Fold this protein.
Amino acid sequence: MQVTQDFLANSSGGPTVLRILLGGQLRRLRQEKRISREDAGYAIRASHAKISRMELGQVSFKPRDVDDLLRLYGVDDPKQREALLGLVSSANAQGWWHRYGDVLPDWFGIYVGLEEAASGIRTYEVQFVPGLLQSEGYARSVIRLSTTTTATEDIDHRVEMRMRRQQRFTTAGAPRLWAVIDEAVLHRPYGSPEIMRGQIEHLIEMGRLPNITIQVATFAMGGHPAAGGPFSILRFPTPQLPDVVYLEQLNSALYFDKYNDTHGYALTMDNLATQAPRPEETEDILREFLSRYGG
């Protein structure tokens, strides 16, 4: 298999995406040669499980391992080898979120890396205001509910990280964010009335940004296709990387990137956005709740 010009032209982005791109390229090279994961693992003195993790972009890459695999897969052209080996150091780089490793679970670190590289995110939430739209006070109230983060310093660190994630959405060239929030979120108080007022005011402010769309799935809608629970869909500017659906669980997360899975969620989000009151009505809906909290 030739390393395509499209791959090389679009091999920029955060380290998480680069690892996935490089791993995917290695998988395609291996499959073209009909080499098993076991044989590939033997060539680099590793297990087939490590080959699987490399191909999924879940681990860092050693230049020697990549070099040995390229030889095994018959990639002899110096320019192709140089291009792929040149991605290794960038793919192994640590993103800004690694400084929060003391309070960042591994499974969520993967999501933050993908979020950082996404050009568009669509999300549906039923329990909380989405993290990317939370005010600092509201975020602190939510994080304090955690049974694993109780120390004040750890709570501060998690709030700081959540606020840092939001910065990218309020700067020039920001990605697109489309959030549908279940009405129940607005009824459920996290913190004092002052905190809830601040959160709703924050939603109104964020909803006025050109790259952010917010809808409220009101109770008046009745049942709807997203009744199964919250999810997010991430889209990337790199053609080689498919959409990713993220489902957060209590102590873990699920990631789907197969079309049969992601397409169903995309249709569900389309239907939900169609059934919910229009984005133009969101500010009026939010102002009704603002009055309930004394605003």
Remarks:
- The chain has two domains: 5-92, 102-292.
- Residues 1-12 have pLDDT under 50 and may be disordered.
